[in-house]
Amino acid sequence: VEHFPYYKDVTCITPNRAEASEFMRINEPNTPEDIKKLGKNIIRSLMCENLIITLGKDGMMLFEKKGRIMRIPTVAREVFDVTGAGDTVIAVFTLSLLAGASVVEAAIISNIAAGITVAKLGTAFTSQRELRETFRDVLAKEYIDIV
Known about the structure:
The protein has helices at 17-23, 32-46, 85-98, 103-117, 128-139; strands at residues 12-13, 50-54, 60-64, 69-72, 145-146. The chain is α+β, with helices and mostly antiparallel strands and 147 residues long. 43% of the residues lie in helices and 12% in strands.
């Protein structure tokens, strides 16, 4: 958290709820409104293009510098081990952007990948097949909320 200032002007930073609140020196937010306020303050403070605050069982919230905020619910059906979930989010988000996805698409794909990873015991990875199958299931539902 003490290194957050080094992330000024980056494309995206992905703290969890605790890290984000510690950086802004506030109590952990519990309501969507408090999380929105926290995210807006971090975007303003770091002047980053995008921010994803991971929220555990509540999914994630994507903040874009231009003002759009989206809540992306978790797709995890079962949670066995959260080891590496945050690493999965930033790795898949970055890979998705490099492959041509939009920021929103990259956030959704990374959230799906993290949901798959936490359903496995220990440090795990998400295969392309798992990601495709889960992605098809998710596309069948109304998925994100613009808040």
